[in-house]
Amino acid sequence: MDNNREVLKSGVWYMFSNFIVKGMIFITTPIFTRLMTHEDFGLYNNYTSWLGIFTVLVTLNLGTTFISAKFDFSTKFDEYIFSVLTLSALLGILWLVPMNIFSVQVSERTGIDRQYLNLMILYLIALPAVDMFQGRERYAYKYKVSVFLSVLLSVFTAAVSVGLVLQMDNKLTGRIIGSVVPTIIIGAVLYLYLAKKGKKVNVKYWKYAFPICLPFIPHGLSLIILNSMDRMMITDICGPEDNALYSLAYTCGAVITLIVSSMNTAFSPWLGEKLHARQNTVIYDVSQKYILLFVALAAGVMLVTPEILLVMGGKSYQEAIYVMPPVAFGCVCQFLYTMFVNIEQFEKKTVGMAFASVSAALINYGLNTFFIPKYGYIAAAYTTLASFLWLLFIHMLFVKRLGYTRLYPVKFIFVVLAGMSFYTVAVNYLYVLAPLRYALVLVYGILFFFFGWKYRKKIQIIFQRSEETAEDSCRHTPAG
Fold it and tell me: What is the pTM of this model?
């Protein structure tokens, strides 16, 4: 019983700490939008867009192998973690060479100065230590040290970034340095910790990880490009000022993506355990409630878009409100296809993931090329939504081919998509009808809390099921 309580507390704390930590961006963004010019804010978002691409290329996302490695190397999991972490660090160091030799060409292509490119690579050498430590703690159902370090890193980064932006004449430089240095410091400490736990590097784990991660590279890269291409193309076609408007709205919409990652942090280990135990009926029952809860949260965020933008950027960013509805709908699609991707990762079937993401990125590029010059930066939100819908349908087909025909409520998902399509169009008209929108916000709030209270016992049952799963999972997890 004591173990069960710890596991339950672990899942809850990870979900909410992830929300709080990543939510720091929504605390600091209003500060940066007021301290930085539209141009600097747009250039920083261009930097973060390219950072996402280089994250996949440099780190190979080796931590994504944990969902299967946890079971395949249950008694040597620490050794596995240290081995793939060392591989990630070596790859990062190697990247410094071409990045400096071809710095002029890379800078011209990306619009990022050489000094920022070097800081980016140093950041990507340190980041996997943080991510893999978090993964290790999550799969061991531990949370105290991990949550503390997460909050520390988040607050440290926010404080340093704001301080440097306030003190430095070059606000862009201060913003980038502030986002990099804390992760480098904490990542170095965590690398030493994981080295002590793992003790040695075993090349056999590299051979295990590569076949899983290599097909994942085009998937992850295409997914990042899909999320970042809009901002890159808007910068090229419309300029950094328009990119600032779009990026802020995208950041505000990312509050929904934040909910996705926070919920998936708790859901994916639970899903892995249920798949391992072949308890498909339980997954089907829980997933429908899981989807309904997320869609309700996303719909609520869409209703208060003007207020979110006003707080985050001020009146000068208000014209970007019409970016939010399609971005939010796209986040719903992300949430749904992540549920299917979790299954593909569990089954170590990542080749199909690569095809899905590459095709979605190509669709997004083609649509952007046509619609952005014609309709401006707002069109980019709708082209990305179309690409996410395509991605969802492809992953649904792949999972069906794996034999999982009754794992998720597919008919219910299509009903959700149809409802969100109508709601996305309707909410655009509500933004100019403030009294009606405020009335709907009030009704939404009352209904949300009413149904939350009414079905609280079913929510408790979900947690109890997670608790039961956790007891079994503890038997497979090494004791740190």
Answer: 0.67
